[in-house]
Amino acid sequence: MGLIEPQTEFPLLATAKDVTELLRLDDVSKTYITDGQRVQAVCEVSLTVRDGEFIALVGRSGCGKSTLLNLAGAMDFPTSGRVLLDGISTSDLNENGLTRLRREKVGFIFQSFQLLNTLTVLENVELPLQLAGESDTRHRAQQQLDLVELGDLGARMPHQLSGGQMQRVAIARAMVHSPRLLLADEPTGNLDTITGNVILEGLRRIADQRQTAILMATHSAESAAFTDAIVKMRDGRIQEVVHT
Question: How many Cβ atoms sit within 10 Å of the Cβ of residue 113?
Fold first, then answer.
């Protein structure tokens, strides 16, 4: 497939009529002012992601991958253009609306796991539900640990786990509130190849079985091979989209 013009919207699975559009970026740009200088992190990006799609954002450090994830998850907002998450423009929401949107529809997975060392494994998974004022939090957290095959490790502390186990706990935490969109920023960056593949296979199952949309930033071609499509980025722009 040839280069994608910056202003062109690219629906990744346009022929899937029974799949619901979840995330839409319309001509999105993001500019920062750093040390008095204007830096354009994302430039005129248009992209559509549907339920159940597993999409990789690939490119060198500084190409805009992490910024695009933050924009998609309403952790940051475009300088121009708009981000629609489940039909809602993230820039139009107040703080309460943004908090609700993130808690109900978005899950985050990070390279550094970001587990709280003072909480047990089970408590880490349970925490998002508690913050949202949900009920039956312990049982639901245990169910998620069971799904990532760590159900018998709930009483352990994070430092007692391997890197792969910690990332599986992070996935359980991100999925405990059943988000429709999962954002993963270099989720296998701190793991060896075999362990990383276990994590990627788990993400693949989440997309296929739960119809959760996954947008993953990675610099690894091997990791990107687990996805439905690879969005190649350079200097804040989409350069090419390759279906795997």
Answer: 20
How much is the pLDDT for 19? Answer: 60
Residue pLDDT, tens place only, 4-31: 333 334 444 434 445 689 999 999 999 9
Place of tokens 């450090």: 61
Residue extents of the structural domains in the chain: 21-116+179-243
Chunked into runs of 10 residues, the chain (244 residues) has average pLDDT values of 35 48 96 89 96 96 94 96 95 93 92 94 95 91 94 96 95 94 94 93 95 95 94 95 87
Beta bridge partners of 23: 49, 85
Q: Is 187 helix (H, G, I), strand (E, B) or coil?
A: coil
Q: How crowded is residue 95: how many other Cβ atoms within 10 Å of its Cβ?
A: 7
Between 3.50.30.10, 3.30.420.10, 3.40.50.300, 1.20.120.790, what CATH number should domain 21-116+179-243 receive? 3.40.50.300
Contact status, residue 46 vs residue 28, Cβ threshold 8 Å: yes
What are 197-208's pLDDT values in tens digits?
999 999 999 999
The answer to whether the pTM exceeds 0.85 is: yes
215, 184 Cβ separation under 8 angstroms: yes
What single-letter amino acid sits at 169? V
Determine contact, residues 159/81, Cβ cutoff 8 Å. Answer: no
Dihedral over Cα of 145, 168, 112, 12: its sign: negative
Query: What residues does 49 pair with on adjacent strands?
Result: 23
Beta strand pairing call for 213-218 and 37-50 = unpaired
